[in-house]
Backbone:
């Protein structure tokens, strides 16, 4: 019965070939208990684990199948090993335990304190083990036994890491991961799967869903703690770098606004000055420079707007205003770009003298982005058609240009960040205009979509909820 203990010579170890041999044994001073089993005594093993929560319980068996591993896991067993027991496994355990105790004494990762981690597992014992494992890291832990409840929270709270079991009732960990990846606030949050499923297919599926690790149960506490610690440390570093980059871009573009606006005002003054001695060629050159300056202004504003959208600083200031009047203002501001390509605007509106409730500056940004886009991809000397109309309790803006269409398999992919045809068509573009436009329309609870035949025309349409005064 104690042969293994004698071979290892460790007072903190107890090994029995039948769980009944533990009935009168004081386990409070033991660190590791190994029980030989044929899995017919799982209720007794479960009681040992429950009565001794600080005791590491392993079971040794000649029959290690997936079903038996899952059974052992549900009992609270930390490890399942082959019988006869390899003494090296036990020696390794005590070596790791000594390192862990030293780690807990010296390790105080204060920079991780307060980071939010969600744990989802339908077995409370597994949750308790993970909570105990992560205790030294000072994390804020949120645990769920029901994945359905967890799925409701991921849209409301930002987390720094998700630890998900896979096999759960009502919803699998894979399904929950898809929901997480579909949220706006947690789509980039790291996910780790912790499961007794060890087959390659499930591991591949987990990684394809974007997980950063796949941990098999039963797991080694020190390994899991190290994986989580390093994942969170890497995430903090990436977040800090991204924040610095975004802050730098916001600062630079903000500083560019004033000189660009001053340049536009000076050029417009030159063109409007009737007493100017400019000849036709000079007039044309200044018009081209003015068009480029306005393009630069739009580029600067798009970068600033992206920063506002993604930092949560976008606030709408809605007023009653005419969508038709706003459209006319936008057309006037791009007239030199239109003239340069010989383009004409055909404006058809059934919203005359109608005011709608929206943020004028933001909707103007959308219209301006769509106009610039239409001008960029229109055939020379063609017409751009703009229609303003009421539709399904909404007011709608629609703009159609002839020329290169959108050939994406899913045309609405064009609204994703940095998606652009500029490089393909040897033109200048950041791929931010349509992305920002969608963010603005979504904030207004409206819709924006695109239609194209892929070769000769493209139509962009956005709608705003109908809150109108005639």
Residues:
């Amino acid at each position: 019965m104690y042969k293994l203990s004698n071979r290892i010579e460790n007072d903190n170890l107890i090994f029995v070939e039948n769980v009944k041999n533990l009935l009168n044994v004081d386990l409070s001073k033991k660190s590791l208990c190994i029980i030989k089993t044929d899995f017919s005594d799982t209720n007794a093993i479960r009681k040992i684990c429950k009565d001794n929560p600080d005791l590491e319980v392993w079971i040794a068996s000649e029959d290690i199948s997936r079903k038996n591993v899952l059974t052992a896991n549900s009992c609270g067993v930390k490890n399942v090993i082959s019988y006869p027991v390899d003494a090296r496994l036990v020696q390794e355990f005590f070596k790791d335990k000594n390192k862990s105790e030293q780690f807990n004494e010296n390790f105080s990762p204060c920079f991780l304190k307060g980071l939010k981690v969600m744990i989802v597992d339908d077995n409370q014992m597994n949750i308790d083990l993970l909570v105990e494992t992560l205790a030294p890291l000072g994390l804020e832990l949120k645990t769920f036994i029901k994945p359905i409840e967890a799925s409701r929270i991921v849209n409301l709270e930002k987390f720094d890491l998700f630890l998900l079991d896979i096999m759960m009732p009502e919803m699998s960990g894979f399904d929950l991961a898809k929901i997480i990846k579909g949220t706006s606030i947690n789509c980039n949050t790291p996910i780790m799967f912790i499961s007794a499923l060890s087959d390659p297919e499930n591991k591949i599926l987990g990684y394809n869903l974007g997980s950063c690790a796949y941990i098999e149960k039963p797991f080694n506490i020190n390994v899991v703690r190290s994986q989580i610690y390093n994942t969170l440390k890497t995430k903090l570093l990436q977040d800090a770098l991204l924040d610095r980059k975004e802050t730098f871009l916001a600062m630079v573009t903000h500083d560019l606004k004033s000189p660009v606006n001053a340049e536009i005002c000076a050029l417009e003054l030159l063109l409007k000055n009737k007493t100017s001695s400019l000849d036709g060629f000079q007039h044309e050159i200044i018009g081209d420079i003015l068009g480029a300056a306005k393009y630069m202004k739009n580029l600067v504003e798009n970068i600033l707007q992206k920063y506002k959208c993604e930092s949560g600083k976008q606030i709408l200031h809605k007023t009653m205003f005419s969508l038709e009047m706003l459209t006319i203002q936008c057309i006037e501001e791009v007239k030199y770009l239109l003239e340069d390509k010989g383009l004409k605007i055909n404006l058809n509106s059934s919203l005359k003298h109608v005011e709608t409730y929206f943020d004028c500056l933001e909707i103007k940004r959308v219209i301006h982005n769509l106009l610039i886009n239409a001008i960029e991809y229109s055939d020379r000397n063609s017409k751009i058609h703009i229609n303003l109309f009421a539709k399904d309790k909404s007011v709608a803006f629609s703009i159609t240009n002839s020329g290169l269409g959108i050939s994406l398999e899913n045309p609405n992919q064009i609204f994703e960040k940095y998606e652009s045809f500029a490089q393909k068509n040897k033109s200048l573009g950041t791929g931010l205009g349509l992305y920002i436009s969608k963010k603005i329309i979504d904030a207004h609870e409206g819709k924006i979509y695109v239609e194209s035949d892929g070769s000769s025309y493209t139509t962009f349409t956005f709608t705003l909820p109908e809150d109108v005064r005639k």
Observations:
- The first strand starts at residue 13 and ends at 16.
- Confidence is low (pLDDT under 50) at residues 421-430.
- DSSP finds 14 helices and 17 strands in the chain.
